[in-house]
Amino acid sequence: MNPPVSARPPFLKKAHPWCLVPLAATLATTVALGQSPESEFIPAQGQFEPGVAPGPDQPFIAPDIPDSILQEASVDSKWFTLKPGLVILTDYTAFSQDTTSVAQVGRQNNQTEFRGFRAMFRGTVGREYKVSYLVAAEYNGFDTNPKNLWELTDLSFTFPLWGPATKLVVGKTKETFDYEMVGDAANLPHQERVLNPFFLSRNIGVKVVQVIGDDHRMTASAGVFNDWWVTGDSLDRSGTDASARVTGLLWDQPDGRRFLHLGISGRYAGADNNSVRYRARPESNVSDYYLDTGNFTSDHAWNVGLEALWNDGPFSILSEYNHAWVTAPTSANPEFYGYYFTGSWILTGETRPYDRTVGYARRVMPTHRWGAPELVFRFAHEDLNGGLVSGGRFDKTYVGINWWATRRWKAGIGWSHTWLDRFGTQGNTDSFLARLQWIY
Question: By the 8 A CB rule, do 333 and 345 touch?
């Protein structure tokens, strides 16, 4: 399976007025609704069922939909459970480029985007032996003349094996590679993933997930994936992926606020129709591809990923490194790599809770009336030059602030600068991203 593929300050000069409507509507009805604690939280140590997040000291200043209304749409019986979910992300992105950047990648347009509108249903079937299911679909109707109004993003069934610590997952699901991908994007301190050339967002296959130890200090997962019967390709021309990931807590404290997570993952990525292409955006969902190798002949690639997350109360540093060795003799077997460092400081003292059953941290759960503001800094580097392939390289910085207003609302704003080396020149791009998200 292939890896996925203007200077016009001030930034808000051409902002669409309606892009701020959701935030204005939220603030206009301040304290109109009460806010209950989030119903799903990380499991307690040694447990598998979701726990209960610590409640806020007072009702949040930002309104939200009461849990009682959301729970009316849920089903909880002995044989069948169902919980609906909804993810809404709205972005406004603005760009400022020098002349070299425009020559390299073209003029990047300021724009508002419904970054995501995803509906999902999850739950269990069975009484003693419970099989979990997840169905999620993304609505594309906001795009111009979409090919399909809805796109199925997840359709999977999870079967417990010999107890809750070992699970078999079958269907359309995430591969077991890369911290940015296996976790939920909305949980991350930074707004967008940057290592996209090295993983797929979803694939069809089977994987096994194992939680290791009585205190759940380690996880191990592995899977095999191929979507040939969905794409219409023949099996021998559709690339098969195989991936594995192992994580562990090198040290931690009983309060859950101090820990060091380490992980290593590997991925064999088979090429579709003996062709691969690596490309990357500079931490944006609406920009053109700044790095692009174009299609070139290859049989497969081997990827390795290293990850680390250090957390001490409200402070954390998340880092990853991905490296790809591509088997492509006609292109001198190129190697590509990328890495990033993300620093976070939650000003009101909350911590990002670590989920031992999956090997990554969940989203911030604010405990103060005014929510939890979080300062974020990031540096990233990506290099798609290797062998006879010249896909370009960039360095980029990001500085921003997230406001975790409630257990479901988050607003974020940030500025980034990208230095792009491509076509023998270096171009500079400044970008501004404002995001509003609601997740249940």
Answer: no
pLDDT of 84 over the 60 cut: yes
- Number of Cβ within 10 Å of residue 144's Cβ equals 4
- Burial environment of residue 386 by CB neighbours within 10 A (0 to 12, 13 to 18, 19 or more): buried
Residue ranges of the domains in the chain?
11-439
The reply to whether CATH 3.40.50.300 applies to domain 11-439 is no
Residue ranges of E strands in 188-314: 203-212, 218-225, 241-252, 258-270, 275-276, 279-280, 291-292, 296-297, 300-312
The candidate with the shortest Cα–Cα distance to 434, out of 6, 98, 23, 10, is 23
Pick from 378, 428, 430: nearest CA to 110: 430
Question: From the CB of residue 399, how many other CB atoms can be counted at a distance below 10 Å?
Answer: 12
Q: Which of 410, 414, 412, 413 is nearest to 438 (CA)?
A: 410
- Cβ-in-10-Å burial (0-12, 13-18, 19+) of 391 comes to buried
Partnered with residue 246 across adjacent β-strands are 220, 264
Q: Which segments of 226-299 are extended strands (E)? A: 241-252, 258-270, 275-276, 279-280, 291-292, 296-297
Q: Report which secondary-structure segment, H or E, holds 255.
A: none
Q: Which tens digits make up the pLDDT trace of 380-437?
A: 999 999 999 999 999 999 999 999 999 899 999 999 999 999 999 999 999 999 999 9
DSSP strand pairing (80-97 vs 75-76): antiparallel
Q: Quickly tell me which residue has 């944006």 as its tokens.
A: 284
Residues 6+ apart with CB under 8 A from 236: none
Tell me the whole-structure pTM to 2 decimals. Answer: 0.87
d(CA 82, CA 70): 12
Distance CA 378, CA 376 (A): 7
Q: Is 267 helix (H, G, I), strand (E, B) or coil?
A: strand
Burial of 233 (0-12, 13-18, 19+ CB in 10 A): middle
